[in-house]
Design goal:
Elements: H1 17-29, E1 40-45, E2 48-54, E3 56-57, H2 64-67, E4 71-72, E5 75-76, E6 79-80, H3 82-92, E7 101-104, H4 110-119, E8 123-126, H5 134-142, E9 145-148
Parallel strand pairs: 7-8, 8-9
Antiparallel strand pairs: 1-2, 1-7, 3-6, 4-5
Helix pairs in contact: 4-5
């Protein structure tokens, strides 16, 4: 039986780690159920996926895409954010997030940033800045690195 080898200068493109993990975050965002914004998140440590999340309704409640959003002060209050869902999934499965990194398609809101900080996540990569400057200010103060990747979606 003959072995097939691929030439090292092959034309196939291999994603770097940031593209790979942000691609997973974008894929997670395709599961979001709030039509106002689709956000996905993936938490990694040592180049290993620990948890994923996307924004959607509380378990057991109808989705925004089915019954509409419940709005307060310009925000949908029905939706649990992608970052929070990723942290909750890790907790539900007994996975420590200490010294991990978060990839998210949009920078975290203030409430999610607080959860991220207290979960032990030390670096946040985001694809789009979303509203809240407090996260930037506090991140520097407490030693969490915020990295703006501004990468195009790898998923159509």
């Amino acid at each position: 039986m003959e072995r097939v080898r691929y030439h090292p200068r092959s034309k196939t493109m291999r994603a770097d780690w940031h593209q790979y993990f942000m691609g997973i975050a974008h894929q997670a965002a395709t599961r979001a159920t709030c039509q106002r914004k689709h956000v996905g998140a993936v938490i990694v440590r040592d180049r290993t996926v620990l948890s994923t999340g996307y924004n959607g309704s509380v378990r057991g409640l109808p989705h925004c895409e089915d019954v509409g959003c419940v709005m307060e002060d310009g925000h949908c209050i029905t939706t649990v954010h992608a970052e929070a869902n990723a942290i909750l999934q890790a907790a539900k499965n007994g996975v420590s997030l200490e010294a991990s990194e978060l990839y998210t398609t949009a920078s975290p809101c203030w409430n999610c940033f607080k959860l991220i900080a207290n979960a032990g996540i030390r670096k946040i990569y985001y694809g789009e800045f979303y509203r809240d400057e407090r996260s930037r200010e506090v991140a520097e103060e407490i030693g969490i690195e915020l990295v703006d990747l501004q990468m195009p979606s790898l998923v159509p």
